[in-house]
Amino acid sequence: MHSRAWLSFLALPSLIAAPETVCTLGPGVSSYKPASDQRPSPDALQIAGRVNTAVKPICGQNCPTMALFRNTTAPNIMLFNDAGQAKIVYSPQFFSTAYDRYGDLGILAVVSHELGHALDATLGAKWVNEKWTPELRADAWAGCVLAHVDPGAGGFIPALDALASYPSSAHPNWAQRLPVIRAGFAGCGGDPAKLQRK
Fold first, then answer.
1. What is the DSSP string of 15-57?
2. pTM for this structure?
3. What are the boundaries of each domain within the chain?
4. What is the CA radius of gyration of the chain?
């Protein structure tokens, strides 16, 4: 039995009985082995705490739980729906590389994208365009989460750079993604002009 870190994220509605990979960011074929799931690192839990704080204004007291695991067999970061329970699994190597390049805000952004899939499955919002693909809707929700984050003096550039650097295989190009992220940011009270990228 693995010990889990439960976060105040969201559970996906029960759609299927078998585990389903909802999203995997970055390239590579999954060699993921669920039996290798481990508790997240203290650093990952600290980032998850920042995401939790940002999510509270979005879903209030209706935020169910989501599990967070680290797993050396995971390619980058993944979201699973397992009989209605959502879990995020990350590769420690991926988090280390992403942190070296983009810092805490970069990790927060990719976690927010994965969480965005769960938010999209459980919440409605007038600013979400139903014609957007699932990956674009998750990007929009990531923008919504970022609207509730203090980026610090460097602004949101590291978050945007991380999102641009680690697309899923189903993502369109960045030129299509950035306006959607800005729409989510604005939809949740942020000033989209703050989402500038060099």
1. --SS-EEEEEESSS-----GGG-BPPPHHHHHHHHHHHHHHHH
2. 0.88
3. 5-194
4. 15
